[in-house]
Amino acid sequence: MKIVALAGGVGGAKLAHGFAQSLPSKDLTIIVNTGDDFEHFGLYISPDLDTVCYTLAGLANPTTGWGRRDESWKTMENIQLLGGPDWFRLGDLDLGVHLERTRRLKAGQTLSQITLHFCRKWGVLQTVFPMSDQPVRTMVNTVEAGELGFQEYFVRERCQPQVKGFRFEGLDQAAPAPGLLEAIHQADFVIICPSNPWVSIDPILKLPGILDAVGKKKVIAVSPIIAGEAIKGPAAKMYAELGIQPSALAVARHYQRLRPALVIDQKDAGLSDDVNKLGLETFITNTIMSDHTERKRLAEDMLHFIGSNLL
Ligand code: GDP
């Protein structure tokens, strides 16, 4: 069974890793948000892409969920000593990746070519696509600070400003990465990972052609909101600030036009009827991926659900 997964960073990487442990590598394609990408110290940084690739490669930091394991911080310490910007933490191993990616981009390679090359070097056999080779920049409109670049909002301001809306700069001029639409056409299922719907999944779905392609497929989405809260990050806060009560039901409404089956946590079993009333099937299970075994368990539960209910 061929699966295409749409993913942001932490939540996306965890479930993608679960499927990577449960499916032959040729059957799994992951499409990753690049709306969080930015330039810092003249380097091209792609946080979600790196989180997904590091996780699949077994190189991810198991504590933070982002960055590299066995990381050192000598360069950052040196930058701090010299009074440089230190709000975005870049470890030494991580920096090597940004340096080499930036060099290759300047030499004319595309982000998707570089991602494929890095994945092969890291032994990642699944196909990982950045959503686009053209820049798309997620801008967060806030009450207190006006419009902020995503990393300014997320890391520098620690998601404190109140959100009014989002703008995806460059989206209309961007195209899905080469081969990406073809991968969706060939998929038996599209999985929407438990990533932030506003700033991780929406940028992917809003790229020209993707919503149409995904709309023709069977879709199964996993709610990143459990018992009204996000496990990590600002997804629930964003729903609340935009006047929507954060819940698995809100996530169901968010993706309703794709008519996905929605995987909701057992803590939200009471919302199942309301989700069903929207015309969406539900699958209730433990969706908290607290360790590697739980990632695989959730992926296998989903494959079993697909096999017995959706095929
Ligand atoms: P980011 O780009 O690094 O913020 O990562 P994502 O957008 O991929 O993931 C953030 C979302 O993942 C948050 O809304 C979390 O609630 C969700 N999340 C993280 N871990 C889990 C988990 O184990 N289970 C579920 N259901 N959601 C998770």
Key structural traits:
311 residues, alpha/beta, Rossmann fold, seven-stranded parallel beta sheet, three-stranded antiparallel beta sheet, 13 helices, 14 strands, 40% helix, 19% strand, globular, binds guanosine-5'-diphosphate
Structural commentary:
With 311 residues, this protein is α/β, with parallel strands linked by helices. The chain has a domain at 3-38 and 121-136 and 172-310: CofD-like domains (Rossmann fold, 3-Layer(aba) Sandwich), CATH 3.40.50.10680. Helix content is 40%, strand content 19%. The protein contains 13 helices and 14 strands. It has helices at residues 10-20, 47-57, 74-81, 92-106, 111-121, 150-156, 180-186, 197-205, 210-215, 235-241, 248-254, 272-277, 292-310, and strands spanning 3-7, 28-32, 38-40, 43-45, 127-130, 137-142, 146-149, 163-169, 189-192, 218-222, 225-226, 229-230, 261-265, 282-285. The strands form four sheets. The chain has a seven-stranded parallel beta sheet, sandwiched between helices. Strands 7-6-8 form a three-stranded antiparallel beta sheet. Helix 1 (10-20) links the parallel strand 1 and strand 2 (28-32). The longest helix is centred in the C-terminal third of the chain and has 19 residues, at 292-310. It is globular. It binds guanosine-5'-diphosphate. Guanosine-5'-diphosphate (GDP) binds next to helix 1 and helix 2.
